[in-house]
Amino acid sequence: EASASSQPASGEGTLADRIQHRRASGSAAPTPVPLTAWAERIARIPLLGAGTAANVIYDFRPGIGAADAFPWQRWRRIVGWQDPVDQLVDNRAQYRENAVRRGQWDALLGPIETRRAIAAWLRRSRAVRCEDEQILIAGSVQQMLALLARLLVEPGQGLIVEDPSYVGFHAAFLAEGARLQGVPVDQSGLRVDALPRIDPTSVADAAHLAVVTPSHQYPTGVTLSLERRLALLEWARRHGVLVVEDDYDGDLRLEGQPLEALRGLDDRDEVIYLGTFSKALYPAMRLGYAVLPRWLVEPVARARAASDRHPTWRDALAVARFIEVGELERHLARVRRLYRLRRDALVTALHDHLGDVVVIGPAEAGIHLLAGLPDGTDDVGIAHNAEQLGIEFSPLSPHYYSTSPRQGMLLGFGALPEEQLARGIQLLAPLVRAAVPNSGEACRS
Ligand SMILES: Cc1ncc(COP(=O)(O)O)c(C=O)c1O
Q1: Mean pLDDT for all residues in the chain
Q2: Does the beta carbon of 173 lie inside 6 Å of ligand 1?
Q3: Which residue among 142, 289, 410 has the greatest number of ligand 1 atoms within 8 angstroms of its CB, and so is best to mutate?
Q4: What is the CATH number of the domain that holds 364?
Q5: Is position 445 within any domain?
Q6: What is the pLDDT of residues 93-143, one digit of tens each?
């Protein structure tokens, strides 16, 4: 009320005028300044990880692992192990800061100890072709996607994604104004035969980046066949496209031998490989890693210099030690056993309560599965109603971008003990049945 009409409106006058106006108005609310076009784009993108119901009892969100199985004591010992050498750690961090200022940008990629440990681990566990100097340690896959989007995609330029795909991919690239081109997925993964013909020399806005999840397609859970992996690399070469392989849960194969990473087949340094500790350890760790083609290392380091400089040094060093002493391998062996039991409990509960309604997707890897629903079901509506019962899961349809969405429930089984999984599905089943058109008839296969 006090805002006198004689005062300049927000955004008008000199800076001094505006500051005076703000003080004079006596308003507790700060005066906003105009947001950028980037901010406007991002405001239109549905927020990731938002809307979590406060009282989730049955947490079926995909990608949430067993926090109770994390070896906290061992982790504490490893982090504590650094204490006697704290001064040394600090000195080294300081030394690296100085090195960065002198133009030795490789320190921006993270501690060399961690990069070395991860490179060795990736070569050993995922047959990834990489050298220490190609490894970037970042806060997460999401952060790396954001960096890559800024470095590699101009507004209006195409980006190839699987359809359906992770909404985190959509967010990172839509924020930069990319034009998403969804390519359908079937039982053998990305339909390589449906990839577009691209002539990068004639069309300025042609896609030159494709983001894929070959080991465990997100969200459907299918695995890209070896034949298609080779065909994808061949297509990428022919069309001048750089492939980004998101191997977000590649070390959580629950059945059979994992197919080697796409970056294991790449003998020309043409695939960007992304990994994260969010699934293998826990999401709040916020540490991920990339293997970058050699030509891209310096541009990424420079982009980093203008954002967070480097990852949190202490946690990154603790991860290096965790890998070196074999704890990561031991932990993964333990949780794979646990996740098999939880996956089996979820599959059994789905058969028991919704066997005639859902199509249970492949569940040979990772910590979620897709329960497909018949066309005409409103999966978002079910998710909304389920929240009232303290049940949270992720509906399938929002993961589609180009093709017409199918309906389904992405059900994480990492975070819940077996009885809870069974009870949650029992509670959810009536909601699902009520939403399925002509419930009782057999579901399409
Ligand atoms: C396909 C995919 N990639 C990446 C991530 C997240 O990784 P980060 O936590 O490192 O951003 C997720 C998380 O659910 C995911 O589903």
Answers
A1: 89
A2: no
A3: 142
A4: 3.90.1150.10
A5: no
A6: 666 666 666 666 778 899 889 999 999 999 999 999 999 999 999 999 999
Ligand 1: atom nearest CA of 62 is 14
201-229 burial, b at 16+ Cβ within 10 Å, e below that, comes to eeeeebbbbbbbbbbbbbbbbbbbbeebb
Q: Is the CB of 250 under 6 A from ligand 1?
A: no
Q: How many domains does the chain have?
A: 3
Q: What's the rounded mean pLDDT across residues 394-412? A: 94
Residue 3 shares a structural domain with residue 139 = no
Does 242 fall in a domain? yes
Together in a domain, 344 and 308: no
Q: Is 48 inside any structural domain?
A: no
For residue 259, the model assigns a pLDDT of 79
Residues 173 and 234 grouped into a single domain: yes
CA distance 96 to 115: 15
Residue 239: φ, ψ to 5°: -105, 5
Q: State which residues form the domain around 162.
A: 72-327
Ligand 1 binding pocket includes 213 (Cβ within 6 Å): yes
Q: How many whole angstroms from 406 Cα to the centroid of ligand 1?
A: 22
* Residue 53 located in a structural domain: no
If you measure from the C-alpha of residue 15 to the centroid of ligand 1, how many angstroms do you get, rounded to a whole number?
A: 42
Under the banding of pLDDT at 50, 70 and 90, the label for residue 6 is: very low
The Cα 41–Cα 44 span in angstroms is 5
C-beta 168 within 6 A of ligand 1:
yes
Q: Which residue, of 327, 356, 390, is where some domain finishes?
A: 327
Same domain, 66 and 80: no
Distance from the alpha carbon of residue 435 to the mean position of ligand 1, in angstroms:
29
Tell me how far apart the alpha carbons of residues 322 and 336 are, in angstroms, rounded to a whole number: 18
**Choice between 92 and 85, residue whose per-residue pLDDT is larger:** 92
Radius of gyration of the chain (CA): 24
Per-residue pLDDT tens digits for 193-211: 999 988 767 677 889 999 9
